[in-house]
Design brief:
With 104 residues, the protein is mainly α. It has one domain (2-103). The protein has helices spanning 2-23, 29-49, 55-78, 84-103. α1 (2-23) packs antiparallel against α2 (29-49) and α1 crosses α3. The longest helix has 24 residues, at 55-78. The protein starts with a helix and ends with a helix.
Length: 104
């Protein structure tokens, strides 16, 4: 169950990272509220997950999910470059997340 909670914490981390773009420097009320809510919910879920998961593993997986998801959505939503090097690095992060999950 902790892994599922951690997964959703990572999804919310993606949400707040992408939300930062839509707040336009925290000048738009609704995106700012949604982004702040996503930040809080993400950290709360992470806190719940680390009750049973090792802190280092949980934090690395949480940030990895957030990083990979944010880069992918940056490519899809904001036309950021999808170079071979970027995609290769994303693959390495995914491999690291999988390795940490297997090691936990």
């Amino acid at each position: 169950m902790a892994w599922i909670i951690l997964f959703f914490a990572g999804i919310l981390e993606i949400g707040w990272a992408i939300g930062l773009k839509y707040t336009e420097g925290f000048t738009k009320l609704v995106p700012t509220i949604l982004t702040a809510g996503s930040m809080v919910a993400s950290v709360v879920l992470l806190g719940i997950a680390v009750r049973t998961l090792p802190l280092g593993t949980a934090y690395a997986v949480w940030t990895g999910i957030g990083t990979v998801g944010t880069v992918i959505l940056g490519i899809v939503l904001f036309a950021e470059p999808a170079t071979a090097i970027r995609l290769g690095c994303i693959s390495l992060i995914i491999a690291g997340i999988a390795g940490l999950k297997l090691a936990a």
